[in-house]
Prior knowledge:
Blueprint: E1 22-28, E2 31-40, E3 51-59, H1 68-82, E4 87-93, H2 97-102, E5 106-107, E6 113-114, E7 121-128
Parallel strand pairs: 3-4
Antiparallel strand pairs: 1-2, 2-3, 4-7, 5-7, 6-7
Amino acid sequence: MLRGGDPTISVVDPRDDDEVAMHVAGFVGDRLVVTSSYYPSTSPVHPDRSSYQLRYMATDFDVQGRGYGARVAAFAETTLRERGVEELWANGRDSALGFYRATGWRSVPGSEHLSPETRLPHTVIYKDLRDPSTES
């Protein structure tokens, strides 16, 4: 699923073993069906906010649309919010933008681009994790 299905393209990030990195997975029985990784990173949208970048989110094709990805994402968002993270951002693959929009992410107009790693179309997306009741 990741990297356009090309197994020669790496999904290893140099930040994978950082103490503050977070990796979340979802299983159906003992079968891994969803993955995602989160790394502290300055948001290109709101650089003044405490933010993490979502990378490598993927859901097996045969279980897409069943809510597994949304549950994994919700767990990660709650955990990061509890750590004081205010915003998530990502270079979302355009073919997955419907999923991201349905789960509260917003696109940055004019940020469409081809990933330099995969040459697949992406758009910068972000999600505000701040508690709406505390915003000014």
